[in-house]
Amino acid sequence: MHRRRKSLPALPALLAAVTLATTACQGLHGEEPKLSRGHQWIRSHPFWISALTQNGKLYEVDEYRTAGLNTLLAWDPRPLLFQKSVDASFPIHYHIHQNHGETVEDYVQHVRQLVQKYPGCTGLLFYDEPRVPAMTKVRDVCQALRGAFPHMLVYSNAMPKGAIRPAKYGFGADAPSDFYAAYIEQFARVVQGDVLMLDIYPLGQGGGHSRVYFETLTLARQWGLRTGVPYWVIIQAYDHGGQKRRPSESDLRFQLFTPLAYGFTGISYFTYDPALGPGLIDGNRKRTPLYYHAGRANLEVAHLGRTLRFLTSTGIAFVLGRHTADGKSVENEMPPMPPPGPWVWRDVKRRPRQLKDVHVAGRGQGHDALLGFFEDDQGDAYLMVTNLWHEKQMSAAECAQTVTLSFTPDVKQVTRLARETGEPEMLVVHNGSLRLRLPGGTGDLFKLGSGSFPGLPDRK
User: Among 400, 384, 390, 213, which residue's Cα sits nearest to residue 305?
Assistant: First the structure.
């Protein structure tokens, strides 16, 4: 990789502009929005990085913030959680359990009493993982909360794919064959949250990740884009009492940068304090190794997130390395459970004209890369390249891979938004080729059109 460390505009756009239908709904400040309510919120707040927290005695704002977290996700109305956050002027998103009321007005009054005593809430999550029969109630409560608290983001959280029976999601005997896809569609269309959020915990006791991980992310992206709302994810930071594995550094980065390439604009950890095993801290408030991995990675996510809040995902694609099967090297072996639709980058209809080829140098199962294509409001194009290789008990450095981008002769340079500093830097393209050395699970964001990165401070 060849660099000139200067802040300057990038080169011609890779992708043609696409139009994303926006949702007509109440604006956060009463105006008629051009963007959905959720998109207005994320553009006016820092990229959302949070961690589910339940124990007020273990929670200290400075320590939480040092892990790179910028918003408390208070899972219960514990006074200490709220008081400590209010005293530190630290923003709160509050999860409202369905047992805190029976009628719509009950939930509104519950929140009103809480925020009057503890101001500082900027978001409300109502009803975790609702099944299909509960979704109408979730919608009605969310609509009432938006009316009562117009400055707050209001949303729910969906289940991930993985259950083998449709009853888990609330379907009966007439369930569709692809019942999880039907569940996410129902969640998006019926609940109508300001963001489409789901949780997925893909790291089992073995290596790699669950077979349904990419499909779950793909469906969330699909319905977020179709309904014109941002989409968020809760990631795994626990071991479920040994039933799963605690994420390694490369595992954690895989869970952070893969959603970024898909266009996710909010990420929460499950969990900060102990729930199903230690989270970022243990029951004695001792920092786990994951705490330090998160602090470093979250800073990079926040740097990229300043711009990603202003971009629209226009495509995703896999670039496969050389896998090993039965002792033989095999080109283009399919990854576990590829998402619906074209997934090899050459098959993506909106693939960039200037991008001629992408090559992953590594060999072995999981030695793949992910491309995310984006555009901003002006139609300028962006490319994110993520190294998908991660493994249990392996660091990001141990899973580093070289990805080579080949461009048409007219491309002489591109501009990278440096995740380490948050500053734009120009990279020289030599003989049409740009080699990237990416740590395990980690991605880089590039602009391939003229102009500055949106969301960055004006340096004029």
Answer: 384
**Which DSSP category does 176 fall into?**
-
- Asked if pLDDT for residue 336 goes beyond 70, the answer is no
366 class by beta-carbon count within 10 Å (0-12 exposed, 13-18 middle, 19+ buried): buried
Within 8 A by CB and 6+ apart from 9, the residues are 415, 447, 450, 451, 452
Backbone angles phi, psi at 334, to 5 degrees: -70, 140
Helix, strand, coil share of the chain (percent; to 5): 30, 25, 45
**Using CA atoms, how far apart are residues 444 and 450, in angstroms rounded to an integer?**
18
Residue 297: closest CA among 254, 265, 259: 254
Q: Is 397 helix (H, G, I), strand (E, B) or coil?
A: coil
CB 273 within 8 A of CB 53: yes
Contact between 84 and 61 under an 8 Å Cβ cutoff? The reply is yes
Asked if residue 42 lies in contact with residue 230, where contact means CB atoms within 8 angstroms, the answer is: yes
Is residue 91 predicted with pLDDT exceeding 90? Answer: yes
8 Å CB contact between 358 and 352: no
The pLDDT value recorded for residue 365 is 80
**Residues 441-460 pLDDT 10s:** 999 999 986 779 999 987 65
What mean pLDDT value characterizes the chain? 88
Mean pLDDT, range 10-15, rounded to an integer: 27
- pLDDT digit string, tens, across residues 275-299: 888 999 999 999 999 999 999 999 9
Per-residue pLDDT, 332: 46
**CA distances to 298, 301, 306 from 421, in Å:** 12, 11, 12
Contacts of 110 (CB under 8 A, 6+ apart): 96, 100, 101
Task: State CA 110 to chain mean position distance.
Answer: 30
**In contact, 221 and 30? CB cutoff 8 Å:** no
Rounded to whole angstroms, the Cα distance separating 252 from 441 reads 7
Q: Please give the domain boundaries of the chain with CATH numbers for all domains.
A: 2-13+312-447 (no CATH), 37-308 (3.20.20.80)
365 in Cβ contact with 329 (< 8 Å) = no
The closest of 381, 314, 310, 373 to 41, measured between CA atoms, is: 310
Using a cut of 0.85, tell me whether the model's pTM lies above it: yes
